């Protein structure tokens, strides 16, 4: 059972990625997605990462909120600056 409230840092750890602030910021900058690309369909995920993202998104559990945050950040280039 997972006791902690999911965070972006914990999501990166679950995905086997570097989870410090600088690494997360760099990942987001370097992996921007076109608007039409769904998060779990991005080419840079391994199959295990893809399954984790997709299964928790479908379950709409606590991870889904953090996954949506990552989704928005990876699509941030698609939104005009205010």
UniProtKB/TrEMBL annotation:
A Pfam family reported for this protein in Swiss-Prot or TrEMBL: DUF2789
InterPro entries in UniProt: DUF2789, DUF2789_sf
Source domain of life: Bacteria
Annotated protein name in UniProt: DUF2789 domain-containing protein
